[in-house]
Batch of 4 targets.
Target 1
Amino acid sequence: MFINGNQLTQRWQQKNFTIAELGFGCGINFLTTASAWLKQAQSNSRLHFISFEKHPIKPQDLEKIHALLECDVKLSEQLITHYPPPVCGKHRLHFANNRITLTLIFGDALEQIKHCDFEADAWYLDGFSPSKNPALWCEGIAQSIFKLTKHEGTFSTYSVAGVVKRNLTQAGFE
């Protein structure tokens, strides 16, 4: 949904590409994206995947979930092996001979995003529905996302709630 929603297979042919995500969860979006990117991107290109997560999952739970969902085994093993402890702040992991960088940002996204300085080509807005997680859909988050998005950057989300649409539009997205 996020790869197609952001038209990534047509866009990540450029040398370097940055994707940011709200809601790392069990890392399925990262693993799916990294696997697809490795199959399609140029050999000299780099992917930076930045993801925010307030409640990190235990590595042993990641392992069970990844096995059930038949994730890319090599990438999953690397993620589980190097998964950082649940300490608030930024944690950087490298995959595929440093072609892929994963920056995990643990803690409250509204607070953590204020300290970020990057430009995302695309966003995965995957923080559950506004009724279950209203903090991830507030006006402040939408404004921060817009500020951290490259010109002509995109986002995709499952949410169709009116508050989400309004906040993203008011922040500057079309």
Target 2
Amino acid sequence: MAKVALLVGISDYQPGLSPLPESVRDVEAMQSVLDRDAVGGFDDIQVLENPDPLALQEAVETLFSGRKKNDLALLFFSGHGIKDDSGRLYFATRLTRKNDKGSLVKATAVPASFLHDVMSSSRCKRQVVILDCCFSGAFAEGMQAKDDGSVDLQTELGGEGRAVLTSSSSTQYSFEQAGEALSVY
């Protein structure tokens, strides 16, 4: 059983999106926790700071692909979350920008649906996603429940599945606290 993590912090943005210097420090703090054998004991931790959309997508795909059923894959994202005009969540990258009308230029961000697809295709059945971004609760809106009407206690309580922790609801902003080294979350 491997324990692998991808920690993404995006602090630098194009004009129109405020910088988030705490994001990179959040990643460093998370890494220090996951590195400790007594606490996290992760085998492999990849840190990605200020990636472009393609680099972020490749890293996410690498995290979840080629895994075994009992592996644990953890994704931590600290940065801007943006919803498009249809209410779909995107993860902003250092290249993310808005057009003249204030709408997201989608090619410059990573859609949450991409993450859903990669996670659903993974053989890894122990997945943890921690999102520290605005509108992060919208991530769950894109998840599909698999329900055949029966209750399997081993499946429900046996430690398999996906855990998603978000710093906000689908309609809330996530905030930084002035003068603090890390985000509030």
Target 3
Amino acid sequence: MGIKKNYRIFNFKILLLLAGFSTFSHSQQTKIQGKVTDTLQNPLPYANILAIPKADDQDIKFAITEKDGSYKLGLIKNQTYELTVSYLGYKPQTLTITTTNQDLIKNFVLKENPDQLDEVNIKYTPPITVKKDTITYDVTKFVTGEERKLR
């Protein structure tokens, strides 16, 4: 019976220790949140938010927006970050922020990128076509002399 009691006390101490670590690590972070929309206030789901710290010893943080365009990002307090928001078909937006003890709310409005390609057409005819039991070769494709000889 003494072993069970010691085991329960040990488990309780470990639980308290883990709770203390989670509180300590949470107190070292500040939260930035907001929404990413286009110029017509439509939410942009699955947009990328990248936080690159100015200090070399810190890790890069990132988030992806939800279906409603909202995001949450945990950053270390009293650090400077370059925040970049990007979405396919829109111009990326970059902002430099310095975190404090207060949580931040930052909304982004992305503008469409007019330099996007509309459509790409690829015209390709294969040099060899196989139809049932017939193989057809396009001899104009075999003119460099580096290909294998056909018999």
Target 4
Amino acid sequence: FFSVADQTWNPTPLIFDQELVLSAWMVISICAGIYLLGLFRTDHDTPTESIGVLRMVSAMSFFGLAAYLAVGLLSPQKPGGQLWQNIHAFLPPKFEGSGVNEDLGPVLEHDGLEYALDIRKALEVAVAQKKPLFIDFTGVNCINCRKMERGTLANRAIHERLKKFVRVQAFLDTIPEVTDRVFVNEVVEINQALAQEWYGDVSMPSYAVVAPSPEALKDARLIQSRVAGLTDVAKFAEFLDSGFNKAAKIQARGKMLSQIAK
């Protein structure tokens, strides 16, 4: 609760950052293990001379969880299993690689790929470079969005496909790492209106591929493919390939009409 408020009110967490919350979970796990072993008790507990097998196993499980969290906190190489992906999704997000691109404006970086934060700038670049626009409707406090970023979108096959797009993360709650609140409120309002028009709600995560046209944000017919919710690698690859191929056909058709007109 407190970390969500911290993320919403500030561009970066002031108090409840990822390290503090992870440390708190470790301490709670250790205390739970010690308590289950009977090394301390509260006033209303009944004294006991022994503990059962189930209680011992539960205590060891809490100690094991604390050790696993310590690896995630202290090791430069984070765990790669599904358990860590779920733990990381529930932690306050840490956005790395933020900065300003000369053409895209404010950007975030994920796995070496830049994502614009201003959908208008991203569309201008997409039109200029004649590349389809990949839109990731996401949120700072969206757990499933973090799962997708560390899971499906980080997959090598998906990563290679995303290189062919101009990429933008359209945040629907607030924009991290940006201190200009006027800009944040303006862009979030645009993103929410698009999500409402295209999907009927502002559920996250949602993804769309649109053709590189100046009218792309005004004409929903220029959406080439879209998918919503947690999506596996195979389905997401199909979504990207479908959108890219349809956008390429539109560009080819436009070139042919242009040549005919000349």
